[in-house]
Amino acid sequence: MGQHKCSAGSGSASAHCDFKRADIVWAKVRGYSWWPAKIGEVIKEKSDRSERKYRVDFIGDNTHQTLPHDKLADFIECYPRYSLTKKKDLLDSIETARKQLRREDQALLDRKAGRPENQKKAQEKGGNIEPKEIVIAKQDGPVMPLK
Predict the structure, then answer these.
(1) How does the average pLDDT of the chain come out, rounded?
(2) Does the pLDDT at position 15 exceed 60?
(3) Is the pTM of this model over 0.85?
(4) In the chain, at which end, N or C, are there fewer CB atoms within 10 A of the end residue's CB?
(5) Is residue 15 exposed (0-12), middle (13-18) or buried (19+ Cβ within 10 Å)?
(6) How far is CA 11 from the centre of its chain?
(7) pLDDT, tens digit (0-9, with 9 covering 90-100), for 81-94
């Protein structure tokens, strides 16, 4: 799933995003919040992505729905936007979805979500996470970056 690049700005999957069976995504049904789901089946394979439909299995509530491409969003790219909730059932489903991601996608999500404890674990295991640059400004001097 890590190869999907979807814009979180519009709230839905962008035109250059292809989903395949078993991908973890955000799915939107009218009247409900964006919810983590797993692609169960690609229903319509056409060259025009907007015509594709997907059967998604919603994580945490054992229901499914057939949705068009524009009602899906990449889980990792849109995580910062759709994971901000106080609803316990949704938070539980989000955590379950995170656990279902491949290890490299979990590390990517941790970096995107800014989880320092997970970044440290990934570094200890030889992960490819670079430390953030710290900038200190002197009152009467130039800005000096530190690492």
Answers:
(1) 76
(2) no
(3) no
(4) C
(5) exposed
(6) 12
(7) 999 999 999 999 99
Would you put residue 107 in left (φ > 0), alpha (ψ -120 to 50) or beta? Answer: alpha
Per-residue b or e along 109-141, where b marks 16 or more CB atoms closer than 10 Å to that residue's CB: bbbeeeeeebbeebeeeebebeeeeeeeeeeee
